[in-house]
Amino acid sequence: DFAAYAHRTDLGFLLFEESPLSFAGEVVFISRSADPSEAARSLYWAMRTLDGKGLSAMVAKRLPDEGIGLAINNRLEKAASKDLSGLRD
């Protein structure tokens, strides 16, 4: 849940749509309107952008598991760390 991490200044947030949350860390949108095609075009740029910021980690929500969302989720999973213990406060 993004809300649990929104206060963290050391995290980057990869967003698929506008959010009512206020984030303390870096925010990059792969789409502002939940458009899977736009997200697919922006994914690698967004990941590289956040990676270049020297953050502790990136936090991303899964897209709907259908169509191109499946491929985007697959890329996010391959890039993800399996050890999330470092993200705990």
Describe what this molecule looks like in 3D.
There is one protein chain. The two termini are 14 Å apart. Strands 2-1-3 form a three-stranded parallel β-sheet, covered by helices on one side. 20% of the residues are buried. The protein is built from two helices and three strands. The protein is globular and about 30 Å long. It has a single domain, classed as 3-Layer(aba) Sandwich (Rossmann fold). Helices cover 31% and strands 15% of the residues. With 89 residues, the chain is α/β, with parallel strands linked by helices.
List keywords for this structure.
89 residues; 15% strand; three-stranded parallel β-sheet; alpha/beta; single chain; 2 helices; Rossmann fold
Short description:
Helix content is 31%, strand content 15%. It is of the alpha/beta class. The chain has one domain (2-80): Rossmann fold.
Count the E strands: 3
- The pLDDT mean sits at 90
Envelope shape: globular
Task: Find the structural class using helix and strand composition.
Answer: alpha/beta
- How many DSSP H or I helices? 2
The radius of gyration computed from the alpha-carbon positions, rounded to a whole number of angstroms, is 12 Å
Low-confidence runs of at least 5 consecutive residues: none
- Order of helical and strand elements: EEHEH
